[in-house]
Amino acid sequence: MTKKCGLSLAIGFSCLLTTMPSLAEFVLTEEDYSETDDLDAIVQQKYGPSAKVADWEEIKTSFSGQISNFLDTVGIDYNDNVLLYRNGTGWWYGSSRHYFITRHNGNVPSHYLVHDHIDNHTVDLGSWYGIKFPILVNKIDDCIDDFLCPPPVDLPPPVDLPPPEDPAPPEDPLPPEPPGFFSQGQLEEARKEGKQEGIDEVQNNPGNYGFFTQDQINEAKAAGVQEGIDKVKGNPSDYGLFTQVQVDEYKAAAFQEGKVIGLQEGIDKVKDNPSDYNLFTQAKLDEAKAAGVQEGIDKVKGNPSDYGLFTQVQIDEAEAAGVQKGKAIGVQEGIKEVQNHPEKYELFNQVQVDAIKAAGVQEGIGKVKTNPSDYGLFNQVQVDAIKAAGVQEGIGKVKTNPSDYGLFNQVQVDETKAAGIQEGIEKVKTNPNEYDLFTQAQHDDAFQNGIDEVKTKPNDYDLFTQAQVDDAFQNGIDEVKTKPNEYELFTQDQVAEAVAEANADAVILTGGKTYLVGEMLDVKLEVSVEVSHLQQIDLWVVIKLPDQLAEEFGEFMYMTEDILHPFAFSPVPFKSSLHQLEKTYPILSGIEVPKNIGGEYIFYAFFTQEGSDLDFLFSTLRSNVAKAKVILSNE
Question: How many C-beta atoms surround the C-beta of residue 525 within 10 A?
Fold first, then answer.
């Protein structure tokens, strides 16, 4: 763009600095407008006579490489549409289709006809009809003073015109073609035929276009997976992995000492205090078992009737009484009872004994029940053979309510046994040493003695103190710092010298010549520098001003990477922290030379160490210093 500049050198030079497009000059209208509205009149009525509809080519020239920042600043979000011109016109090849832009951020829909794009389809130029979008405005102010500018013209509000009676947008709009050769229908038919031929060609010969079938992809993937597996299995250590053999070896080696100590310690803990782990010695087990067996035998012999057993005298008495007491009826009832509920009378098998008896007491009771004749008693089978109905009725009563007859259930038996066990535990706890056991305090003392032994003499156990480790670590650091080249390392100065030597002719300034008023400046920077992967660099562009401007602004001016403030009068790099470089950087390109700022401008360009200033340039310089002389004429 161009600007009308004032007469003084200071004003004229300031005007030169602002001839480059600024983000502040662009704005969106608040309302939407039809493409058939008088966009120029609307823009001038709202923003002044010098305002104009923004032009695509101007935006592309000024903001390529920074278009996302431009769109964010102006307020154009993802999928937003905005009206503008291209090369001064709003219409595509004189048709009814008007230009507009859409922010796609690289994701272009298949139906969108792209005339042009910026920064890999961050924003795309399209066209259509029957649309209503905001207008992108360039608010250029060509006036030096407000009184020189005519007041804005009041225009009537925009009128919404009906959209032209054109067909609905095709799903896949046509590529731009000069008008007048084919009808829309012919173009559409040709597009469909060409599209199908293209699809068929790529499907039939995908390899010619860098594509692959799904089978090829699957084969390549399978081959890659197998190759990866083979690589890892062939050299697992390269990937931080280990074979089972290595793991077993490391595990055996690393834990051998701990395993021996820990295993023995665990065994000793249990042996020292078996009761803490609900364990007992064999002697205690044998004693409890023998006592329980004897106690069970004595209980049954002392009160055989409590366990469903009877003496010979009782049997004889019962037999005489039972014969006289409704033998026939009792027998029949007993038979029916046993037939209906046989499980109730299987009282003396081992399963039931195991369910209600515990430890030695249960074993003693079981012995008596299994062989009652060894103890002068008779089992239920023998009683059943000689007893009548009355005897069976008596047995049923006892079984139904055992507590009425001095019998005990499993809970009572368990409580008695638990009391005996607790008594044994208390004896062991009171005098553990009598049972070759030891207290926790004794164990802790022995454990602490082992720790103190290792801490006192760590080297005897292949261990090292923190101070020894720290000394070894520092010795390693000092060794590498003293002799870095022996470890394939390099100092900062060595890297800087290598980079500077490699970049001796890496920066060239072009466009140094005399420019007349009205000509376009074309100063560019060409770069062929090699950036070390070990560091980043800064790019500087410094301009030495003519004497008449230096008196007012200072001797030097510095280009910045801020597109809103492209120049500064204190040292600041043009590009900071670079690790990927462009081949060409436009310095002052496409800017019209104004009047009254003539003189000799010396341009300097060079690379320095990242983050460095210009105070020690001789030590931070990373390339040659390029120089170009630009003379601006006042005519």
Answer: 24
- The neighbour count for residue 465, using CB atoms within 10 Å, is 11
Spatial distance between the Cα atoms of 556 and 603, rounded to a whole number of angstroms = 10
Q: Find tokens 């800087």 and name the residue.
A: 496
* Mean pLDDT value across the chain: 79
User: Count of alpha carbons within 13 Å of 409, Cβ hemisphere only?
Assistant: 7
Strand partners, 575: 539
Kindly state the DSSP code that residue 256 receives in the 8-state scheme: H
Q: What is the reported pLDDT for 367?
A: 85
**pLDDT per residue as tens digits for the range 524-573:** 999 887 666 557 899 999 999 999 888 888 999 999 988 888 999 999 99
Three-class secondary structure of residue 602 per DSSP: strand
The tens digit of pLDDT for each residue in 570-589 reads 999 999 988 778 889 899 88
Element (H, E) at 540: strand 537-544
Q: DSSP per residue over 159-202, as a string?
A: --PPPP-PPPPPSSPPPP--TTSS-HHHHHHHHHHHHHHHHHHH
Is the torsion defined by CA of 242, 247, 250, 255 positive or negative? positive
Strand partners, 33: 133
569 DSSP 8-state letter:
S
Concatenating the DSSP letter of every residue in 107-133 gives: ---TT---SEEETTTTEEEEEESS-EE
The pair of three-digit structure tokens given for residue 504, joined into one six-digit string? 């001796």
Q: Are 496 and 608 in contact (CB under 8 A)?
A: no
Q: How many Cα atoms occupy the beta-carbon half-sphere of 31 within 13 Å?
A: 12
* The CA-based dihedral angle spanning residues 79, 85, 86, 91, taken in that order and rounded to the nearest 10 degrees: 100
What predicted TM-score, i.e. pTM, was given to this entire model? 0.29
Which residue carries 């609307």 as its tokens? Answer: 42
Which residue matches tokens 């205090």?
A: 273
Name the strand (E) or helix (H) holding 138. Answer: strand 136-138
Tell me how far apart the terminal alpha carbons of the chain are, to the nearest angstrom. 20
- Please answer whether residues 19 and 28 qualify as being in contact, where contact means their C-beta atoms are separated by less than 8 angstroms: no
pLDDT, position 75: 95
Residue-wise pLDDT tens digits, 189-202: 776 777 788 787 77
580: left (phi over 0), alpha (psi -120 to 50) or beta: beta
Give me the phi and psi of 422, to 5 degrees please: -60, -40
Q: Largest Cα–Cα distance in the chain?
A: 156
β-bridge partners, 282: none
Which distant-in-sequence residues (6+ apart) come within 8 Å of 41 by Cβ? 153, 155
